[in-house]
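Hey team,

Filing this mostly as a record. A colleague (T.K.) asked me to run one chain through the structure pipeline before their review meeting, and I want the input and output archived in the tracker in case anyone asks later how it was produced. No errors, nothing strange. Just documentation.

Input sequence:
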Amino acid sequence: MKGQIFSLIRTKYNTLSSSQKDVADYILTNPDKVMMNTLNEIAAACRVSETTVLRFLHKLNYNSYQLFRINLTQELSKDNQETVYDDVGFQDTEDEIIDKIIHSTVSSITDSRQIIDPASVKAVVEKIAGARRIVVAGVGASGFIAQDLYHKLIKLGLNAVCANDPHIMNILATGLDQNTILILFSHSGESREVLDMAAIAKERRCQVCAVTSYAKSTLANQAEYLLCSSSRETMFRSDAMTSRIVQMVIIDILYVSLVIALGDGILPQIHSSRLAVAKNKI
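Output structure:
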């Protein structure tokens, strides 16, 4: 657990209750105080009960507050102590905005290591490699992320299609079957169009891979495969914005893993794809 406390808090943030988020926010912004606080003092500072604090710690797999405080102290005392940046404010200069946004983004990517499950990645890669057809979909901002995965799949010569229009999604859904994998992108996991497509996939015995930030969302519950992204919401930057970056990282992980799984025989196809694109450049 040593060295992972801040990452754990951020990656678990979306699973916390509102009162538990108050505890998380207090610890993230006041780590030096927490080292000296008793359980009762933290509860009082957050205006919650001691039971709420303990339930929050259980979400981080800590069975006692004392062990949590010891590990927090060890983490803060390391030479490579994590710098905690405040949220961007109206008074910030361009230099400060740049530093804070970059730090927030890097933290989100680093945190993703705690939630991207290698076994899930392997299972999805194997399913994609063995599928007769791959259907990728998402709406809104998630639709653009879906397009990036589609772009990488066709570079490998795989039989993939992509849609971000609800009507096209429904039409594609009618062709789903057990030899197809449906990969759906939704930050919240609650987009109606995406859930409708997942429901049709179930009827047609097509397995679903969900890429979402919320492990307990409706989409996650409907999927056979789950790849989670997670992030934090700030004053000017919604959690969906940083989640998008983590999902791009997940796509790169899938792509590289696919290339390795497909072996040396896929290299000529990659080379051909590069040449095809190069012809369009001056």
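Quick notes for T.K.: Residues 16 and 56 are 7 Å apart (CA to CA). The beta strands are 133-138, 160-163, 180-185, 207-212, 225-228.
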